[in-house]
Amino acid sequence: PHGGTAQWLAEAKQALLFTAVRPDVVMERGEGMYLWDTEGKRYLDFIGGWAVTCLGHSPAVIREALDRQAATLVNASPSFYNKPMIELAKRLTQLSGFDKAFFASTGAEANEGAIKLARKHGALNLGGAYEIVTTVNSFHGRTLATMSATGKSSWEALFAPKVPGFKHVPLNDAESLLAAVDERTCAIMLEPVQGEGGVHAADAGYLHTVRKLCDERGLMLIFDEVQTGLGRTGTMFAFEHDGIRPDVMTLGKGIGGGFPLSAMLTTSRFNLFEPGEQGGTYIGQPLAMAVGNAVVREIVERKLHEHAKEMGDYITRGLESLANAYGLSRIRGKGLLLAFDLPAPRGPELVAACMEAGLLINSPSPSTIRLMPPLIVSRSQADDMLALLSGAMDRLRA
Ligand code: PMP
Predict the structure, then answer these.
(1) Which of 50, 131, 258, 345 is deepest in the core (most CB within 10 A)?
(2) Is 253 assigned a catalytic role?
(3) How confident is the model over 208-242, as pLDDT tens digits?
(4) Which range of residues forms the domain containing residue 331?
(5) What is the pLDDT of residues 71-80, one digit of tens each?
(6) Which residue of 52, 226, 232 sits with most ligand 1 atoms within 8 Å of its CB, as the best mutation to test the pocket?
């Protein structure tokens, strides 16, 4: 049944708008920790759909939730309540301690919601303040507003003019933050652990300062937990590590386990939208809601956040044991959002060598490797990853 890859690739290059450099494989099937391409080659997946497939590939709970919901109601309309929408709002607010949930499809959309809510807060409560302070090296999405919120220097000159009203300050630099906040500021937005930026965690002390500043000035504090949320960092939400609660938290990626689903959670205090100001065709889409319920229930019941913590520690020890031999440095991260630096900017070559050997890893910048496997990863799969990784590093050196 396999083969035909050359034809698929030719058609891909012909018909798809070019937006990404992709290797010459076509992924066909997934199960658990593994993906298979159209040649039947198997890959151990330590990218996890970019921190998305938290329950692994094609888990039974997602298949069953989709089957059941598709047979009941695929779509009514965002104008109506539906049962799985209500269920997921209740489940997520109870789990997180927030009061209110808004649903969307992508992380960027959840962040758009947060940005709009912050501006509404500024308009209503802060005399028209509209500026949002975010961090250098952050990532919040690829829509025009979330791209403008993103602190990525290589994007600075792109797609001008940017959406105005964003200022970027270095993470963990309280002085720069204090200097940036003024009477125009309505919110501060950050990732508790920067993901795309290379896995850099916010310090507890810094987060305390940020929370205090927001409280004193009435600013909205937004945590983008699109990558860190739902068990990824070893706690259910990354804000729990330091006990600093934001006013708004966005979720995406893992919440759908591979299905497009995102959420924005907030408190009753920020229940500020009037009808029609925020929404969309797929808000509360029943299939997505059903999957969200299944995924969140599974993470909670199996305590996958605790497993992520344990496996993160295990993998970290494994990487530390390779560090001397291969010159790996700054092994960092929390739970199953991990990264390390290479002695030379050869990340893309290492990614390719690992792929050749049947292992998928990510290189967010040339000298950094990031690991974000499904939360179900086992010790023996972690051992396999370490063996394939060191083998690939050996070949690169040879
Ligand atoms: N925020 C963070 C922290 C992310 O890591 C990402 C995706 N990498 C996004 C937002 C955007 O999510 P999406 O691609 O689903 O729009």
Answers:
(1) 258
(2) yes
(3) 999 999 999 999 999 999 999 999 999 999 999 99
(4) 5-58+303-397
(5) 999 999 999 9
(6) 226
- Residue of 299, 159, 189, 163 whose CA lies nearest to 234: 299
Site of tokens 């290797």: 23
Which amino acid type is present at position 73?
A: L
Token pair of 28, please? 């066909």
Residue 139, annotated as binding a ligand: yes
Q: Which residues contact 141 (CB under 8 A, 6 or more apart)?
A: 106, 107, 108, 109, 111, 112, 147, 149, 150, 226
Find all residues with CB under 8 Å of 99, minimum gap 6, and list them.
Answer: 93, 266, 267, 268, 271
Residues 325 and 337 in one domain: yes
301, 335, 367 - which closes a domain: 301
In this structure, the residue with its CA closest to atom 1 of ligand 1 is 140
Domain tally for the chain? 2
Catalytic residue among 253, 270, 334, 340: 253
Q: Which residues line ligand 1 (CB under 6 A)?
A: 50, 106-108, 111, 139-141, 191, 195-196, 224, 226-227, 252
